[in-house]
Amino acid sequence: MTQNYEPQLVTGPGSLQELPLLLQGQKVLLVHGHRPVEDGLLQKVRVLLEQHGIARENMGQILPDPTFKSVKRGISLCRKTGCTMVLSLGGGSTLQCARGIALGVPYKGKIKDFWNGKKKPKKALAVAAVLTDPATGDELSDSCTLVKKGKQKKFRSPMLTCRFAILDPEQSQYPPYPTMNQGFVLVARLFACALDARDRQLPACREIMDGLLESIQGLETDIHNMEARTGLYKAGVQVHRLPVSDKSGLTTLAGDLAFACSLPLGTALSALFPAWWDVMMQKNPAQMQRISHILLGCGAQQGRQRMLSLISEMNLAASLPEAGLELTASDIKGLTEDSMLRTVLQKAARD
């Protein structure tokens, strides 16, 4: 039951067909939500497992930002049915829940003990994923974020690393809005990575950005373009393998805003991005000039216009009012204590 693996990534159109081989000898708990893409994936997985005689149980009704209550339900079901592996179907939220379940099944105490720092895990069920969202990067992480009393709580352990993750673009046929959200998450994270990157890593950032923008453009033209969707998955893995400390705070702030206001992360990022760019230009114009040249091949002013055009072409919000948000001074104060990030929020709320 102990797990401490480097995740095996199985990628490309049709890669879902490899799932039965990866699950040989396991009784698997399927953890999923109920968005149309996830429901379609669930049916395909059920058929595959039945064809290959692989035993499974089913746990649905996983909502975004899963809670300890959902994890406890999965732990109980796993113990009752004797599942030996937990398989997440969908995006980041289902994988967070699956990880919590995998951690809690062999532990006799309260699952919150790990998050409270009272105990360290000694073993866990194997956990794996079939991901429909190329932007989360959760397949490469070893963390589990659950919600307690309206606040996100994160716990990390090598035991939470996925045994394998299937990234099949044929299973991510989202309509334009969520697809563009996924794309912009990767664009914004790449800027955060470039700000942190060493000189030798910067050419790789530019190469990833070129491929990412090409994929986004292809999906803008034809949302069913499988080559472009495959490119989005490729860029997702590449971006999340780059080291990032988020020194500017953009991705952390957007994550907190998305959680607090029930926004898609991509929309939170696009709504903050122009204001963040302006504030960063005031703080460190030389750095923004450098990053703009590296990632976009132009100066900072032209780079800002290119990013505004990109946000518009992707039909995303370029300010908080465009995202339908009205933040009060109290709201802004509650989101961050950092003075620079408060300025970003204030500017994004006005623009």
TrEMBL record:
Single Gene Ontology MF annotation: methylglyoxal reductase (NADPH) (acetol producing) activity
Pfam families with a match to the protein in the record: Fe-ADH (PF00465)
CC per GO annotation: cytosol
Keywords: Oxidoreductase
Entry superkingdom: Bacteria
Domain Alcohol dehydrogenase iron-type/glycerol dehydrogenase GldA: 8-169
UniProt-listed SUPFAM superfamilies: Dehydroquinate synthase-like (SSF56796)
PANTHER family assigned to the protein according to its UniProt record, in alphabetical order: ALCOHOL DEHYDROGENASE YQHD
Protein name (record): Alcohol dehydrogenase iron-type/glycerol dehydrogenase GldA domain-containing protein
Provenance organism: Faecalibaculum rodentium
Source lineage: Bacteria, Bacillati, Bacillota, Erysipelotrichia, Erysipelotrichales
